[in-house]
Design brief:
The complex is a heterodimer of chains A (342) and B (336). Chain A is mainly beta. Chain A is built from four helices and 19 strands. Helices cover 31% and strands 15% of the residues of chain B. Chain B starts with a helix and ends with a helix. Classes of the chains: A mainly beta (342), B alpha/beta (336).
Amino acid sequence: MRKMLFGVGIAMFSLAAGMSVETPATAQEIAYPGAAARFARETAKDYRLQARYPESSKALEKGAADPVKAKRMPTRQSMRGPEGEGPALGVWASAVAYQSPEPVDLFAQIEAASPVALQEVKGEISNIDGDLIASFVYRDDGRGADRRAGDGIYSARVALPAGTEPDFAESFQVTAVARLAGGELRQSVGGFLYGKPSARLTGRYRDEVRDGSLVIAAEVEVAEAGRFHLAGTVTSMAGEPIGTAQAALELQPGRRWIELAFYGLMFQDRKAAGPYRLGSIALTTATRMPNALSDLVENAYVTRGYRLEKMTQKAYGESHLTETANRLEGEAFLLDLQEARQ
Amino acid sequence: MTCRRLSIAGLLLLGLVALAGQAGAQPCLVFVHGKQTDTNTYTSYTSARNYWINGSNDFIRTATKSFAASYYVVGYNGTRPYWDAQAAGEVANEIVNATNGGADGGGRRCAKTFAQGGTFIVVAHSMGAAVMDYILGNNDTSDPNFNYNGPYDQVAARISMAITVGGAHRGSQGADAVCGNNNLFCNFIALFIQSCDDATYWLRSSDDVQVRTFANAPAKTVYLTGGYEAIFGSSACLNGEDDGVVQYASIYACNGSATASYDNSNVCGNTSKQESSGFRNLDAGHENHDDERNDSDSDVRKAIPGGIWTCSGVACAPNTTVQSSMTSARLISILY
């Protein structure tokens, strides 16, 4: 193999056509000229770009998904049968987290091109200690949590038994076992959070531009003192995500306001004047782990109209990122010198 | 006068060249191990150090270029959840200790402190990746679990990057199998994970235990590499390519389902990660979960989408063989 040349783009090592075995490593060997320096420089370049925004507020690439919403969207867990045999059984919950005392909607489905009828699907909910909390049967009969009979999606609505609800928040495991028509078994494991958040969003919002950034304040009603985290995504009126902001505060009981400061540069970067839509907002009681998650609120609020000129054009200059970028660039310089010497 | 200027410039250059040849020009590597079935790595430095060794093969020796770069070995309680004080808390405190010039359990110190201008790269394997995600995603006062049980802010400020090898960023289907008592299907994987202790429970694939549910995007870039060499039996329990214990969706911190099937051709690129920023692909190696951390299988490496290898000036097509014999430790050694 020809010794590595330098590639383009992100910290890449270039590879000549045709491969050969790399010689064994020796100390200080430079087998990939310029590669390490380039890796350091590209990482530094990333940090300089990121440093344009504060850690509490990030711009999103055009076309990017809403990250606040994505974290509250439940995902499916699937597992195949013995020796990796298909089809797999997929399980999921209707939410990442539930608030006491609401019931939990759980689903199971054999992953196949067309609906697969099953002899039975049984489920169990257990806690981290392995204690059995509830046993239940999934059904595909169009009743309760099941949206349509015979569609191959088996559903169950389960209320946690009295005395098993956590004081704050807890993770619960769901184990589903399906018996296929031929008697074969499939098992998959999912889960959900169940908790009692100490605050709720009241639905009252207000907005202003302050120091060149869009500040949206959300009112929360705090039932019990604790630490609260609020995250939101601002979108265009057409729903295109522009950026995120988050804040965390210790709050005492009562009605309080939490402010999300969307750094103004994100609107300049996207050339997006107001009004803006608060596309999603998520409140978390983060007093301890695991956190108690409140329900996601979508399309929560529309701001007043703002001219783009009111938003800052200044890069924030997040200091720990610029400091690291400086050091990486210094290291890259020394690497170049070291290679030149050899 | 001109000669004098030249000689000063020459001396300066010579000084810089000399400086470049010293270990001080290199970062200090901080090693964070993975899931454990007992507390040995937390209580014994030898256990923590041996995590990276297999016979005469030593991940740390290779990654540090035969110890040309300085290093520090972290030992934490790998039976506790990734967010626990004895996991994330211990790791954060040890990393800060390393950056302050403190010694690890074996008396090793980084060559330069942060105050002296040192740089630090964290190398994490398996569960160590989830621990680092939690730390780096809770470093700011606006994060949900800011400095939950340790100086996460100092860690994030002081390290240059993290490199994860076979990282359980999205948990492991092996943990699903063990915690679901799925012995009928996946008894092989139980040999590796053994029991559904609290750490294993918090490494399941479901949303309720995922790091991303409790953290923000990492404050410093997390570079991702991992293995695709199957382990007989256990790999059958995992969707898509895997290293025998952790599936690709997790190794490469993909968004969406943690059990989605991926391979070298279609694993998630840098814009489809569990967070909107902060994760970047390196490549994939034909190593299993153990090989990844003990430098014992110098084997083929493949390009993956958004990865670091280029072929004739452009990004190598995913699944292109980019090296015929290279371990993950060796890969790390050429990144600095």
